[in-house]
Amino acid sequence: MKKKIELSLILPCYNEAEHFLKSSQLILDVLRKNRIAFELIFVEDASQDSTKLLVIEFLKRRTDKKYRVLFHKKNTGRGKSVADGIQEASGAFVGFMDIDCEVNPNYIPEFLAQLKSGSDVVCAERHYQTTTGGLIRALASKLYQQLVKTVLTTSLPDTEAGFKFFNRKRILPVLSRVHDTGWFWDTEIMIRSELAGLKIAFIPVQFKRRIDKTSTVRLIPDTLNYFIKLFSLWLNLRGNSLLKKI
Q: What is the pLDDT along the chain (246 residues), one digit of tens a residue?
């Protein structure tokens, strides 16, 4: 008898050609080694490099229905890619990770176990390597998280990690209220999950910044964009709170 899908793992892909095949195989090896009943859902977000062709090549050698891909006709952002994957997933539990594996896929079994023990949302809490690039990224992340805590009055330690797992049934109602489609999606899904009373757990992970790939993160413009969206979310939540009091 065919095993029922336990975990739907979503891999959003945008300009990942430099490491796609190696990273995909690494993730696949972890899932197989731990005997997880999984499905892989690639969401190809209209890459400008050869990522689309590599996804097609990867899937040609794996005809099983547990390997799937969604192709976006235009670039929509990481958040929309993950959201589309969650909607299409068939597993009781669903997760996503950045395919560059800056957070090692070896953490997957621990996150899945946490969901099985009753958590609705399990998010990575990143600990950075002490390299120059890592320190800069860590400092920017810490400053942002402090701002999130102050503006949105939350105690969540890390909302932005690209390594999150969910109880699919519990997260779907929250997902329907998330508006952002880009990188800020991570903050919004976590804050709205907290406000919805979902049980949230954090697992410490080692974040190893890859210097052998071209980053799609633009530190200064992306940071400014985050700030704008952070205050927009605050206004939205504050407005909804005031309406409830009327």
A: 457 899 999 999 999 999 999 999 999 999 999 999 999 999 999 999 999 999 999 999 887 889 999 999 999 999 999 999 999 999 999 999 999 999 999 999 999 999 999 999 999 999 887 665 556 667 777 888 888 999 999 999 999 999 999 999 999 999 999 999 999 999 999 999 999 999 999 999 999 887 666 655 565 667 778 888 999 999 999 876 533 543
Q: What is the 3-state secondary structure (H, E, C) of 101-125?
A: CCECHHHHHHHHHHHHCCCCEEEEE
Provide the residue type at 176 as one letter: S
β-bridge pairing 93-97 and 163-167 = antiparallel
Structural domains of the chain, ranges and CATH numbers in brackets = 7-245 (3.90.550.10)
Hey, what amino acid is at 130? T
Distance CA 112, CA 76 (A): 28
Q: Does the model's pTM come out above 0.85?
A: yes
Can you tell me the distance from the alpha carbon of 91 to that of 6, in angstroms, rounded to the nearest whole number? 5
CB-based burial, 95-121: b 16+ in 10 Å, e otherwise: bbbbbbbbbbbbbbbebbebbeeebbb
Helix (H, G, I), strand (E, B) or coil at 19: coil
